[in-house]
Amino acid sequence: MKVPWRQTEWRRVVVYGLGASGKAATRLLRMREVEVLGIDMRTAEQLDLGDLGSDSGVELILGDEPQNLPARVDGVVMSPGVPPGRPLVVAAHQAGLPVVAEVELAYQFLDGDVIGITGSNGKSTTTALTGELLRASGFEVEVCGSGGELLQRLPEFKPDLVIIDVEGAEHSVLMGARKTIALSRPRILVEMHSPEEIGGMSENAQRVLSWCKKSEYRAWYLAEGAELLEVVQLAHRGRCHLLLQTAELGFPEILRGIEQGASVTDFVRAT
User: Fold this and answer.
1) Which range is least confidently modeled, 17-26, 243-252, 255-264?
2) What are the φ and ψ backbone dihedral angles of 38, each rounded to 5 degrees?
3) Could you tell me if residue 225 is left (phi over 0), alpha (psi between -120 and 50 degrees) or otherwise beta?
4) How far is CA 98 from CA 113, 144, 229, 249, 271, in A?
5) What is the pLDDT of residue 147?
6) Which structural domains are found in the chain, ordered by start?
7) What pTM was computed for the model?
């Protein structure tokens, strides 16, 4: 299976954690003829593996975890509950192997617009409400959580639009998704914040501009409908919105008719 994280194809992959999302990730990989080494500290009886327990392409290590990296492994898919400091995960990083979450695994097969919602509390409620608002506005919507159901039926196509709202971690998200963005080249709507711990809006915007230059993107300051060339243009803002596009694209003129404070639904329709 071709992946954006390395030049060679994935043929044998560790899925670390076989809960709902881990089992869904395993089935997604098996549908694409990737061999899976599934690892979990629980027993088969506790996990209820179903058809995966009899799949000849799935090798299982249950009730224990290897301290060393297994042979012939091309990457690791981590479930949300697996601590990043586990010996096998550390060994994979040291060996230069891709270590991705099941969300990143699924992301490369998504089509259409993607809205990511994160935070400490209220994520499920906000996600459900966002889905209902978009449905009421006439959009076809799939609401995904940590259950992993959608992983097994994702079509193979690329996202056109990514929306980032992560309270000051915009550059970190862009860096983490750089290979996926390089593969898909989507438009990216970014809500910029000014966290004091990284130097406020000026430093945050400079990081995003540096990312754009390296990624052959341009940043458009939506409040002015103009390209963001210098951070001084928005240094006074506590929060603002940027549209990141590939370098050959100009500002979408249709956006000039959208008022400040308009909803995400208005932006999605316009693009």
Assistant:
1) 255-264
2) -90, 130
3) left
4) 25, 24, 34, 31, 33
5) 44
6) 12-102 (3.40.50.720), 106-270 (3.40.50)
7) 0.52
